[in-house]
């Protein structure tokens, strides 16, 4: 199959959506499919000829995010030449909408993964009951334009149902590269500890992810202040807009000597960070899946987290970790139980590895390919097979207007 991934979020950004796209694209290509990625500029030195960049500008409120043009002639031509069989979007913004237009015009199946609980992120713009309700309504209306919506967790499946989405919804978590995280050795773990000044005898709790308000990291630092195990330290791997406020909170609690920031880590250093840790520490309630939790489990770590439906898909309380109420005291007590009992820590870590094997990216990609094939077959049976990518006069006029608007946008902000 020739598959088009359309996303306003891609490299050089570092987040769960980007990781999901890269993992699925690589796994699908290993299985013999062709994956084309339509994403915002800037173009990266590692981009292949199957990655087309659509002009974009930084988002004023969050410069690490991009606002893409709603039309790109280059992308339009590549989509036509590629003769895509299916289009799969990973967000509902400009490039996702562009993909929807291409799918509708060419009568191609349009799949969407609902990666992000947008009502939980309105605080980056303007948080009110109205904006949250609007985010839910827009999510519903977008999803109902799709032939299939993929939910990465039962939490998202439930939310989409509560919002009244009528399009078909199927559960498909992002898989994890189990080999990569299981391969990190003691030497790389020890080297990472030395790099960040963490003693061999320290008990290390690790968080990996974006440092945003929605990740609830303030609760984790309040919890580490209450952890009683000698030498317990929190390693925060990642970066983001909430870091300076979090550092002030850490200083006010007097635990700066117990918290270490690494910033973003690349490649094998991420696996080494997991390998260097004794447990994974997590308090976010805004996750759609919590891919980092699966990565930690593939590394053989017990998980101590605030109870949440998205995390509960992978973590069973008392089996491969502990799920607690949203309380620093509860998180600290659970962490102490794991840190002070080596046999419990080993047993939970072994269970984590077992669960992670069921979430391997190759297995999830094979399931995704099967969903594509079923969708193609049903669309073909219904008489909705692909037709030539040749716009009518009316569509040509619309595309011309879109192109002009895109050029005006780029001249205004570049």
Account of the protein in words:
By secondary structure, the protein is of the alpha/beta class. The protein is 45% helix and 17% strand. It contains 16 helices and 15 strands. The chain has a seven-stranded parallel β-sheet with strand order 3-2-1-6-7-8-9, with helices on both faces. Strands 12-11-10-13-14-15 form a six-stranded parallel β-sheet, sandwiched between helices. A two-stranded antiparallel sheet has the order 4-5. Helix 3 links the parallel strand 6 and strand 7 (110-113). The chain is globular.
Task: Please give the structural blueprint.
Layout: E1 2-6, H1 16-30, E2 34-40, E3 51-54, E4 56-59, E5 62-68, H2 73-82, E6 86-89, H3 94-106, E7 110-113, H4 129-143, E8 148-151, H5 154-162, E9 169-171, H6 178-182, H7 186-195, E10 203-208, H8 217-224, E11 232-237, H9 243-253, E12 259-263, H10 268-276, E13 279-282, H11 291-298, E14 303-306, H12 309-312, E15 321-324, H13 328-339, H14 342-357, H15 361-381, H16 393-413
Helix pairs in contact: 1-15, 7-10, 8-9, 8-13, 11-14
Key terms:
2 domains; 414 residues; seven-stranded parallel β-sheet; globular; Rossmann fold; six-stranded parallel β-sheet; 16 helices; alpha/beta; 17% strand
CATH fold-level topology of the largest domain? Rossmann fold
* Count, helices: 16
Total beta strands: 15
Compute the gyration radius: what is it?
A: 22 Å
Mean pLDDT: 90
CA distance, first residue to last residue: 37 Å
* Widest β-sheet, arrangement of strands: 3-2-1-6-7-8-9
Q: What overall geometry do the principal axes of the alpha carbons give?
A: globular
Give helix % range: 40-55%
Largest sheet: 7 strands, parallel
The CATH homologous superfamily of the largest domain corresponds to: Glycogen Phosphorylase B
The secondary structure category is alpha/beta
Q: How many domains? A: 2
Proportion of strand residues: 15-25%
Q: Report the uncertain regions.
A: 386-392
The top-level CATH class of the largest domain is Alpha Beta
